[in-house]
Design brief:
There is one protein chain. This protein is α+β, with helices and mostly antiparallel strands. It folds into two domains: 19-254, Probable tRNA modification gtpase trme, domain 1 (Gyrase A, domain 2); 255-335, Elongation Factor Tu (Ef-tu), domain 3 (Beta Barrel), CATH 2.40.30.110. The chain is built from seven helices and 19 strands. Helix 4 packs across helix 5.
């Protein structure tokens, strides 16, 4: 499924997202539903994050790895009950991988793709819009938690989460027939708050360090290379299929890692391929996502950098399609 990447312009959408509220059709975030007595065991097999303390009603950001410790996906997992989970996948397929593990280990589970299509309400005015439609109780949902709310007599899972740093919600629309009625109701409720149709914004996601699977990382990268080590409890994530490989990686440490990269100069060209990061004439990494930031007055980028050159303040050069630019490694992202 192809989704829009821009509505008015990348910069106009960016300013609006930061100031108001947007409604995103993110139905491409398909769910992998796992239910049955072995559901919790199977989900733990997929990730180095220790899920033993996770309770129904919680959502976790969850790196999923293969047997080599390589990243397969970085979804949000929703624990509906002890024996029922949704994995809300990012930019790669997981259904057959999960079904294969379930079958190979003869687990007592059913793995399927339910008719669930998320809508995201993102931006600083998201709470006001959601409260207008679902009542003030929606404001009480804590970050990465969810509640059940009624719409047209049906209970919808609503989580405080989303692919932006501006705050907001993701509504798991169970049943395609509810899609348009809910969209129209949200647009009506959001009219006083300048709601618009939108989508994840390139500039804003880079400023916030939100990674794009298949672009900033893939199966060749471990979670530690992606800066996701804080989501790995590899020692205690018993059963994870990539655990042994990741224990070795954790002991040795990564030799390259994702870093925020500030790029000097004016507006940047589109980053439709990897841009080499150079120390003199030696390649020491690459930039995978880049854009000009109006708020910070510089180029903002996500790059993979070798350990010899990843320290904060290290000055490098990046080879863009329009020539070489000065680039500086940052300790953290902008938001």
């Amino acid at each position: 499924m192809l989704l829009p990447t821009v509505f008015r312009s990348v910069q106009e959408d960016y300013h609006h997202l930061k100031a108001a509220v947007q409604l995103w059709d993110v139905a491409c975030e398909r769910q992998v539903e796992i239910r049955g007595p072995d559901a919790g065991r199977l989900v733990q097999m997929l990730t180095p994050r220790d899920l033993r303390g996770m309770l129904p009603g919680q959502c976790y950001y969850m790196p999923i790895v293969d047997e080599t410790g390589g990243m397969m996906n970085d979804p949000v997992v929703v624990k509906l009950a002890e024996d029922r989970w949704w994995i809300s996948v990012a930019d790669s397929d997981l259904l057959f991988w999960v079904k294969g593990i379930a079958y190979g280990y003869r687990l007592d589970v059913l793995v399927d793709e339910p008719d669930v299509s998320p809508l995201a309400v993102q931006g600083p005015k998201a709470d006001d819009v959601m409260a207008a439609l679902f009542g003030d109780a929606v404001r009480d949902i804590r970050f990465f938690r969810f509640g059940l709310f009624d719409f047209h007599g049906r209970g919808l899972v609503i989580a405080r989460s989303g692919y932006s740093k501006q705050g907001g919600f993701e509504i798991y629309v169970e049943g395609a027939d509810l899609g348009m009625p809910l969209w129209n109701a949200l647009m009506e409720a959001g009219a006083p708050h300048d709601i618009r149709a939108g989508c994840p914004n390139l500039i804003e996601r880079i400023e916030g360090g939100l990674l794009s699977y298949g672009n900033d990382m893939d199966r060749r990268n471990t979670p530690h290379e992606c800066g996701l080590g804080r989501f790995c409890n590899t020692q205690t994530a018993i059963g994870c299929v990539g655990r042994d490989a990741l224990l070795r990686v954790a002991q040795e440490g990564p030799v390259r890692q994702i870093r925020a990269i500030e790029i000097a100069g004016d507006a940047l060209p589109g980053c439709d391929r990897l841009w080499p990061l150079m120390a003199g004439e030696k390649k020491v990494g690459h930039v995978s996502s880049a854009a000009w930031s109006p708020d910070f007055g510089c180029g903002v980028a996500i790059g993979m950098v070798r350990m010899t050159h990843w320290d904060d303040g290290t000055e490098l050069h990046v080879e863009t399609p329009e020539g070489r630019r000065v680039a500086r490694v940052r300790e953290s992202f902008w938001l």
